[in-house]
Amino acid sequence: MSFILPDLKYAYNALEPNIDAKTMEIHHGKHHAGYTNNLNAAIEGTPLAAKSIEDILGNLDMNNKAVRNNGGGFYNHSLFWEIMGPNGGGTPTGDLASAIENSFGSFENFKEQFSNAAKTQFGSGWAWLCAHKGGKLDVCATPNQDNPLMPGVGCGGTPILGIDVWEHAYYLNYQNRRPDYVSAFFNVINWDEVAKRYNANR
Ligand code: MN
User: What's the topology of domain 20-202?
Assistant: First the structure.
């Protein structure tokens, strides 16, 4: 079995002005495609080729750099495209909204904690909102293409929202202004998709 680069469910320019079309095109068509191809090359002919990406990452040998970097890159970007959308922004509703209030005190507190995690991750990486069994939510950041599904990484649990803070995710439009990119990201979050992932993993 080979992993396949997922199609975007919206056009490259659909997230403008928050994320520009050129960045989306390169990010999806070059970076994510590269992680996908390199993951397939790394697992070809090994027992990992028969496993799901969640299974591969959850039982990962962290010394396997090719699978760690490219499997993480494949999974992280697949999540990233889904939790954004052209009709995004606003605030969550329903059980997810309650869980955010229970875990962080308020949506504003969550937003501040998540944004700080994204802004202060040194160098390349991601910030995450993770769901734990029982419904508790956590925020954490991870370097490179690591994610909390991997053994001993970040806050554990299942990532239900993530922001890519590699420079390739924002540099064309924002240059060194990562905080502006993080702020704009909140305008494109697809909270319905985040809620779906929360309900499936709490
Ligand atoms: Mn990226």
Answer: minor pseudopilin epsh fold (3.55.40)
Q: 3-state class of 137 per DSSP? A: strand
Distance 170 CA to ligand 1 centre (A): 9
Q: How far is the CA of 71 from the centre of ligand 1 (A)?
A: 13
Domain extents in the chain: 20-202
Distance 24 CA to ligand 1 centre (A): 10
Say how many CA atoms lie within 13 Å of 150 toward its Cβ.
24
Q: H or E stretch including 25?
A: helix 21-26
Distance CA 15, CA 173 (A): 13
Instruction: Kindly report, residue by residue over 141-196, the tens digit of the pLDDT.
Output: 999 999 999 999 999 999 999 999 999 999 999 999 999 999 999 999 999 999 99
How many Å apart are CA 42 and CA 48, to the nearest integer?
A: 9
Burial class (CB in 10 A: 0-12, 13-18, 19+), 63: exposed
pTM score? 0.97
